[in-house]
Automatic annotation (TrEMBL):
<keyword id="KW-0520">NAD</keyword>
<keyword id="KW-0547">Nucleotide-binding</keyword>
<feature type="binding site">
    <location>
        <begin position="190"/>
        <end position="194"/>
    </location>
    <ligand>
        <name>AMP</name>
    </ligand>
</feature>
<feature type="domain" description="YjeF C-terminal">
    <location>
        <begin position="6"/>
        <end position="276"/>
    </location>
</feature>
<dbReference type="Pfam" id="PF01256">
    <property type="entry name" value="Carb_kinase"/>
</dbReference>
<dbReference type="InterPro" id="IPR000631">
    <property type="entry name" value="CARKD"/>
</dbReference>
<dbReference type="GO" id="GO:0052856">
    <property type="term" value="F:NAD(P)HX epimerase activity"/>
</dbReference>
<dbReference type="InterPro" id="IPR029056">
    <property type="entry name" value="Ribokinase-like"/>
</dbReference>
<feature type="binding site">
    <location>
        <position position="154"/>
    </location>
    <ligand>
        <name>(6S)-NADPHX</name>
    </ligand>
</feature>
<keyword id="KW-0521">NADP</keyword>
<feature type="binding site">
    <location>
        <position position="219"/>
    </location>
    <ligand>
        <name>(6S)-NADPHX</name>
    </ligand>
</feature>
<dbReference type="GO" id="GO:0052855">
    <property type="term" value="F:ADP-dependent NAD(P)H-hydrate dehydratase activity"/>
</dbReference>
<keyword id="KW-0456">Lyase</keyword>
<protein>
    <recommendedName>
        <fullName>ADP-dependent (S)-NAD(P)H-hydrate dehydratase</fullName>
        <ecNumber>4.2.1.136</ecNumber>
    </recommendedName>
</protein>
<dbReference type="InterPro" id="IPR017953">
    <property type="entry name" value="Carbohydrate_kinase_pred_CS"/>
</dbReference>
<comment type="subunit">
    <text>Homotetramer.</text>
</comment>
<feature type="binding site">
    <location>
        <position position="41"/>
    </location>
    <ligand>
        <name>(6S)-NADPHX</name>
    </ligand>
</feature>
């Protein structure tokens, strides 16, 4: 049975920070993506991860994207993705790895995805988005079973990955069956009324709208999920909270904006999160 995802997920997941804490308690996040054509995708993901409060954010990308990354987000560290050895070392050190936004499907991109998956271990979370999902479908790459995996396809990507064509994607039974077959722990099937499927749990988002139908909206969500999973306890719930917050912010901004720029969402995240578990007016 599909349950509506409601604001209480935010109160469950977003916890006040202990006063004696430090950055090592809020996730060491690695974002991999951004070729020469799609640099913006990984930049938007990085903005969302940094704004969500992730402890440390590193971006492995094509070297043309490093200066723009630092101009937008000096908080993020950067690696040239041509240095595979250094990138894989960072993969091993990270608590959460997001791969895919703007990754493209070159031979190098395919090898980077394969080696990233091989380098990951049990206590880490892997988030697969955009081009990474296309490569997995195209090249029949197996998703590792020993890593907690979150996949965030839009309907076109899910059709390619699962062979569940769009008219049949209303069947949660079919989607969940394919989720399990593909070794995905949490499936975020993005659309108007996104659904989130995991073991014995099916949630549906009823927030958001067409003002979100703009390039980069999913890249921003992927970065937000990475940031939430890095700093909050339970990855399933953290994913659901990020999905909720992403569209709730979009809906709030849409009251005064015809279209909601994905970068605006990232900028608004700290303000939105401050209204959970504080004395400020609560969100609902
Ligand atoms: N600023 C940047 O750098 C940006 C970079 N980006 C990066 O670009 C890369 C390619 O990603 P992508 O999503 O744009 O294209 P792709 O993987 O070819 O799939 C699209 C095809 O699937 C179909 N389709 C069906 N349902 C759909 C749906 N609900 N939403 C969307 N599509 C749907 C549709 O087919 P149609 O229905 O038109 O026949 C369409 O042809 C990726 O790495 C991404 O991160 C973008 O994030 C944008 C901003
Ligand atoms: N009409 C809509 N109503 C609600 N949400 C939408 C709508 N159109 C797009 N979205 C949301 O915007 C995001 C689009 O993701 P995606 O297609 O991966 O974008 P991109 O790859 O360009 O960043 C998803 O979170 C999706 O749910
Ligand atoms: Mg996308």
């Amino acid at each position: 049975m599909v349950t509506e995802l409601k604001a209480d997920i935010l109160h469950e997941v977003i916890q006040k920070r202990p006063v004696t804490t430090n950055k090592t308690n809020f996730g060491n996040i690695l974002l991999i993506g951004g070729n020469e054509q799609f640099g913006g995708a990984i930049l938007m993901a990085a903005s969302a991860a940094v704004s969500s409060g992730a402890g440390l954010v590193t971006v492995a990308t094509h070297n043309t994207n490093i200066t723009p990354l630092h101009i937008r987000n000096p908080e993020a560290m950067a690696l040239d993705w041509d240095n595979h050895g250094t990138v894989l070392e960072q993969v091993r050190k990270s608590s959460v790895v997001l791969i895919g936004p703007g990754l493209g499907n070159s031979e190098d991109a395919i090898e980077l995805l394969r080696s990233t998956m091989r380098a990951m271990r049990e206590n880490q979370t892997l988030i697969l988005d955009a081009s990474a999902l296309g490569i997995i479908a195209d090249k029949h790459v197996m998703i590792p079973t020993n890593v907690f995996t979150i996949a965030t396809p839009h309907q076109g990507e899910w059709a390619q990955l699962s062979s569940v064509m769009i008219p049949y994607q209303d069947s949660m039974e079919l989607n969940d069956l394919q989720r399990k077959t593909l070794n995905i722990d949490v499936l975020v099937l993005k659309k108007h009324h996104t659904v989130i499927l995991s073991e014995n749990r099916q949630m549906e988002l009823l927030l958001g709208g067409p003002y979100q139908a703009t390039g980069g909206m999913g890249d921003t969500l992927a970065g937000l999920i990475a940031g939430f999973v890095g700093q909050f306890a339970e990855p399933r719930r953290a994913t659901e909270a990020a999905v909720y917050a992403h569209s709730a912010i979009a809906q709030e901004l849409a009251e005064h904006n015809w279209v909601v720029r994905p970068s605006f969402i990232a900028d608004f995240v700290p303000n939105y999160m401050a209204r959970i578990n504080t004395n400020l007016p609560e969100v609902d």
